[in-house]
Structures are given as C-alpha cells and as structure tokens.
Write a structure and sequence with these properties.
This protein is an alpha/beta fold and 335 residues long. The chain is 57% helix and 7% strand. It has 2 domains: 3-117, 3-Layer(aba) Sandwich (Rossmann fold), CATH 3.40.50; 141-328, Hypothetical protein af1432 (Orthogonal Bundle), CATH 1.10.3210.10. The chain has a 5-stranded parallel β-sheet with strand order 2-1-3-4-5, sandwiched between helices.
C-alpha cells in the first residue's frame, strides 16, 4: 500500500486529506510545513507527496525542488488556493505530477492520487525497461530499430488511452510528417526519425490530468499552461534515451513558430530543427481536420488554408509547400 505525505499549513486541509487517505486505506503522515516534512522524508520512503504552494517558512516550490533532486522515485502533487498560471508552470517545470486548486472535493483528490500513483508505477517500470533496452542497443544495433519502434508505439498508447478524443492523433501526424519529409527529398533515415518523432510528439501529455485533456469547455489559464507544458515534459521523458535521432529536441520544438511566437522557448525560424518545423505543420493540419471535445472538425480545406495563409510567418515555407503538394497532387488522406 502506498505511503503518502501531506504537507499543508492549514489544519482543515490536513484533516480532510487524512480522511480521504484513510478511506483509501493508504498509509500517511501529516506535516504542517516544509521543515516538518523534511524530517519525515529522512526516515520514511513516500511514494507520493501532496504539498501546498504557500506555507510559512520554506515555500512549497522550494521544498519540491529539494524532493525532486534528492528523491527521484517520489511523485509530487501541488495544492494551492490561487489559480496562477505562472506558479503552475513553475511547478510543472520542477517535476510535479499534478496540480489541485482549493477547495477540492474528495472525489477529485482520490482520482488525482490514483492517477499520480499509477503514473509513478509506469515511470519506474519504464526506467527499468529503458535501461535494459539501452543495454541491448550496445549489443545489437540493427535489431534495436525494430524493438525501439515497438517501445515508441507503446509509449504513444499510454497517452491515447487517457484521451479518447485524440486517439490516433499521433499516428496520423506521424503519417503526414513522413509524407512531407519524403516530398522534401530527405533520406530514409531522416524520414524514419521524423516518423518516430511524430508518434511521440504528445508523450508529455501523460503529465496532464485526463479531465483537462477531454474538457469540452473553455480551459482556464492554469489548465492552458499545463497543456502547453507537454512539450517540455515530453523532452524531459525522452532526453536521457539514446535514440538514433534527436527525438527529444524535435518533441520539445514542435510548438515553436517561425516568428518566435511559439512555445516553450520562443525560437525563431532556423533555430528550429527542420524535423520540428515539419512536425509543426503536420500537427496543425491534423488537429484542425479532426474533431476535438471543444469543437467539431474544421476539415482539410480549412487546415490547408491556415498553413497557406501563415507560411513563412508561423510555419516553414518549404514544409507547407510540400504538405500542399502531398494533399493536392499526391492524394494523401488520413487513415
């Protein structure tokens, strides 16, 4: 059974969470501030920490930085009474699994705890598997390519299983990006890298609560900031894996734009990898052409109009021209 630490200076919050944890039959400890929490984590191993942002003394953000640096196997969720996108973004950059805004109901708490613990289990299992996989890379490079594809598709499924509305999105983006790369005349190995980046480009959404991914209405500022952080999370997941292609950088950059208006780093044009520029075009076209929980499908014609109007501004001109040829001259269709 999971061992959970609650860190919050409000007694009422600690009492509420202790009742929830008792109901879930979790083992737990309660701390009124970061200093008390530090004493607990020295003596006990915790699978999950629920931590308030604003507390007397050391802030919650500084405390979780310490936890993330020293206890990498511990999952962290933040709690706050203030809907502040800047704080949410900082927390996600540090490495929290979730972000609950007070006041919250018990069902919300239970769902977030279960999701965080499940994600932790998957990540721990993934680390073991990836270590074994890297060892195989050293021994059988040729054989790895086939195995690597299976792992990549498995990672993709972890995202799509949580978001029924965009199931198949990553594969369709991958198919279009590959077609664009082929049209632009890239060699087979580079096209394979583009294809693999396509099926992984939204892997960072594993860190986004499922209820936000499938929310039918308008997102709050905090929710939108959490969504935007998926590029950075995807990079963090992939950066330590020695792929034959720069997949982590491509995933990090796929929402950057030619004029610097994209995210997360506001890169300008040629600062972006060409693979990321291709992926950005494919991602926009597929997203506009498909149904989303907050709007119906806009269709291929509208999507192609968008990239045509904004080529050179938001989207790479060569990638856009190749995409237009793929649809209009080569008869490309999403499966």
């Amino acid at each position: 059974m999971a061992n959970i630490l609650v860190v919050d200076d409000e007694e009422a919050v600690r009492r509420l969470l202790s009742q929830v944890l008792l109901r879930g039959e979790y083992e737990y400890a309660l701390a009124a501030d970061a200093a008390e929490a530090r004493k607990f984590i020295k003596d006990r191993n915790f699978e999950l920490i629920l931590c308030d942002v604003t507390m007397p003394g050391e802030s919650g953000i500084d405390f979780i930085r310490h936890v993330a640096a020293e206890y990498e196997d511990t999952a962290i969720m933040m709690m706050t009474a203030v809907d502040d996108p800047a704080v949410a973004e900082t927390a996600m950059e540090v490495g929290v699994y979730g972000y609950m805004i007070k006041p919250f109901n018990t069902n919300e708490v239970i769902i977030n705890i279960r999701n965080s613990l499940r994600r932790r289990e998957l990540e721990l299992a993934g680390r073991v598997y990836l270590r074994d996989l890297e060892h195989k890379v050293e021994e059988r490079t040729a054989e790895l390519r086939k195995t690597l594809s299976g792992v990549i598709y498995a990672l993709t499924m972890t995202v799509e299983m949580r978001d029924q509305y965009t199931a198949g999105h990553q594969q369709r983006v991958s198919d279009l990006a590959r077609a664009i790369g082929t049209e632009m005349g890239f060699l087979k190995d580079k096209i394979m890298g583009i294809r693999m980046a396509g099926v992984l480009h939204d892997i960072g959404k594993i860190a986004i609560p499922a209820e936000i991914l499938s929310k039918p209405g308008r997102l709050s500022k905090t929710e939108f900031e959490l969504i935007k952080n998926h590029s950075q999370v995807g990079y963090d997941i992939l950066k330590t894996i020695q792929f034959p292609w720069p997949l982590s950088q491509i995933v990090l950059q796929h929402h950057e734009r030619m004029d610097g208006s994209g995210y997360p780093n506001g890169l300008l044009g040629k600062e972006m990898l060409i693979e990321a520029r291709i992926l950005g075009v494919a991602d926009v076209v597929e997203a506009m052409a498909s149904h989303r929980p907050y709007r119906p499908a806009l269709g291929i014609d509208k999507a192609l109009e968008e990239i045509s109007i904004n080529k050179g501004k938001f989207y790479d001109t060569e990638a856009v021209n190749a995409c237009l040829r793929v649809f209009k001259d080569k008869g490309f269709k999403f499966k």
